[in-house]
Design goal:
alpha+beta; five-stranded mixed beta sheet; two-stranded antiparallel ribbon; 7 strands; elongated; binds zinc ion
Length: 112
């Protein structure tokens, strides 16, 4: 089970990531354990690579909005080892959600 931490902690530990430079097609079909509780199959067309941390470390972003730090193991056949994960919080989206909640409350008040 991969450790799930807060986004703050995750960013501290994965600081210095750069946009992806390498072609990820060699990793097609390799599963990785994700912080959302599922195991995802890596696919260059479907898996979003959040950033690359140099060497053999990458941060993947899944559809459930979990970022997971994975390390590539092995040489001729690769494997992913998940090290750390966090629920991604997009500051803008988070703000929108709060606004949604507020308008929900308002409409409840009107209803009552
Ligand atoms: Zn996931």
């Amino acid at each position: 089970m991969v450790d799930v931490v807060s986004m703050n902690e995750f960013e501290q530990k994965t600081g210095g990531g750069v946009p992806l430079r390498r072609k990820m097609t060699i990793f097609e079909g390799i599963p990785y354990e994700c912080g959302c509780g599922e195991t995802h199959i890596f696919s260059p067309s479907q898996t979003r690579v959040y950033c690359e941390l140099g060497g053999r470390d990458y941060v993947f972003l899944c559809l459930n909005e979990y970022v997971t730090l994975v390390k590539v193991k092995g040489f001729s056949s690769h494997k992913f080892k998940s090290l750390l994960s966090a629920k991604l919080i997009d500051p803008i989206e988070d703000k929108n959600r709060q606004i949604d909640r507020m308008s929900d409350k308002e409409s409840e008040v009107e209803f009552l």
